[in-house]
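Hey,
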Amino acid sequence: QEYMGVLEMPAKITEIVQTVGPLGLIAFGGPTAHIGLLHETFVNRKKWIDENHFMELMAVCQGLPGPTSTQMVCAIAAVQSGVAGALLAFLLWNLPSFIVLMLAGLGTDLVGKNHKWDIGLAPSAVALVMITAFKLGQKVTDTPIKMKICAISAVVTILLTGEMGRGTVSDRAVRIYRTFSITNDLTYLV
């Protein structure tokens, strides 16, 4: 599929409003959870971008500072409707969550600390992340070597993240590191 330049306006601004507006209202769970929503909308339903371009765009956006999902929404909108579409998509994507968070913050002050309305948010976000990881994982790990690299990366990440998700290096990870560490072996020689 051939894409127009970023400064051209091949799609109507109303199409950006109709597509990105609702996404801004329902997107929650952080950038990782948003990726599945963006893939479903822009690749499967709207067909604004194909699978390969989506994966490349995701890789580039993850390498840049800032939230990946916001960068992807703006980039895809820029391809569709130019710079004006990208700026509009930025506002439509971010403004609803800004308003909701401001109201939630004000509401929390009014109702106090004992509230039950946010109990389901964390499990819902985890479910969205798991679904996205599974779907994209199937597409990205399409060869045995990619599957092995992914599995090894997952094991190393789990070992180095630490017990109970505290972000500290666990004793077991330190023992494994020392087993394979060259500097550790050299200390025994001295």
